[in-house]
Amino acid sequence: xxxxxxxxxxxxxxxxxxxxxxxxxxxxxxxxxxxxxxxxxxxxxxxxxxxxxxxxxxxxxxxxxxxxxxxxxxxxxxxxxxxxxxxxxxxxxxxxxxxxxxxxxxxxxxxxxxxxxxxxxxxxxxxxxxxxxxxxxxxxxxxxxxxxxxxxxx
Length: 154
What we know:
mainly alpha; structural constituent of chromatin; H1/H5
């Protein structure tokens, strides 16, 4: 009986130990899993950050390029404007030459125009004269009235 009891005890202890070991193993596995997950998460985070950085850099590069292009365009526009101004000056000179030629041809026509202008001026003068005469008449009337009054007083 004693032996039996001892055997049973031993067996029980063995079982207990086994259980303990298993538990430990399980815990270890769990811990490892957790660690792995953590590592994975960290990796993902790092990758995300890297990607974001790259994106930002790309955006900045694009912006810089755009600015450069705009500056170039503005410079070109300014140059074009300058060229246009120069061209205009040249054109003016040419026009002057043409005008001189026209003057020689249109001598007779210009004389006729002058005559017409003179006629118009004469008409205007006549109108002015009429107005002046009217004013003079008014003045004379006033003088007469004054004389009459004086006579009465005397």
